[in-house]
Specification:
The chain has 8 helices and 2 strands, in the order H-H-H-H-H-H-E-E-H-H. By secondary structure, it is an all-alpha fold. The protein has a domain of 161 residues. Strand 1 and strand 2 form a beta hairpin. The longest helix is centred in the middle third of the chain and has 26 residues. The radius of gyration is 20 Å and the shape is globular. Keywords: Membrane, Transmembrane, Transmembrane helix. This is Metal-dependent hydrolase. It holds the Pfam family YdjM. InterPro entries: YdjM-like.
Length: 240
């Protein structure tokens, strides 16, 4: 199993690649690309929210608590500095002392959150959460995609670490990371599937627009230039 640092580095690289492609396609501006990059990088830590290590869990929830507080503060106007501080502090306290203990009590490491169904659940919840705070459908869909990409990168990396290349054998942990659902915990797994199905159902009003977005992106990707035009470089026209 890859460690905290390795997961963060991997999701950072993948997220940077995707956000730079969007920037090259002129689909987002610089600020939006930066925001999506941060979302994708942090999403690489999501499957470890059920970590048994208190230090890792505290770090993860501190990061997500600050991110959630930042989103709320940036998308709402408050009348005073004190009010802004209080809302930010309440968000942080809620994550660290309400949501975190619930996760610690009900989750087991490498169980239901370490599955493709959980990744899909995180993605659809991100879509609805983004729309709920007033983000445009365009950015909400991109945020959902970056969440999916970052989280699935985590699962793939853990499976890669389950292969012992030197001894040409599979470790005992092989197959525990990238699984569709965890049948050992049927109630939790079915709950994840139900939440995902519900999220997809309530996203019906946006299906046509989302489909159009994917069609547009697919068309632009086919015409995207990855290599520079060697016959028309900017500095070739410079005069000395």
């Amino acid at each position: 199993m890859a460690n905290f640092s390795t997961h963060l580095k991997a999701s950072t690289i993948v997220s940077a690649t995707f956000s730079s492609v969007l920037l090259s396609m002129a689909e987002v501006n610089g600020f939006q690309a930066l925001g999506l990059f941060i979302v994708g990088a942090l999403a690489g830590l999501l499957p470890d929210l059920d970590s048994d290590k208190s230090k890792s869990l505290n770090s993860l929830f501190s990061i997500f608590a600050l991110l959630a507080a930042g989103i709320v503060l940036l998308n709402n106007n408050f009348d005073s500095v004190i009010e802004t501080w209080l809302v930010g502090a309440m968000m942080y306290v809620c994550f660290m002392y309400v949501i975190k203990p619930i996760f610690e009590h009900f989750t087991v490491h490498r169980a239901t959150l370490h599955s493709i169904s959980a990744v899909l659940m995180f993605s659809i919840l991100t879509l609805h959460a983004a729309l709920l705070v007033g983000v445009t459908l365009y950015i909400a869909v991109l945020s959902s995609i970056f969440i999916f990409t970052g989280a699935i990168t985590h699962l793939i990396l853990d499976e890669c670490y389950s292969v012992d290349i030197d001894n040409k054998e599979l470790k005992a942990s092989f197959g525990t990371a990238m699984k569709m659902i965890d049948l050992r915990y049927p109630i939790t797994s079915l709950s994840q599937v139900a939440i995902t199905a519900g999220g997809i159902y309530f996203a019906q009003p946006y299906w046509t627009d989302i489909s159009s977005l994917f069609t547009t992106w697919s068309t632009k990707l086919q015409t995207l230039r990855f290599l520079p035009d060697l016959h028309n470089l900017p500095w070739q026209s410079w005069t000395w």
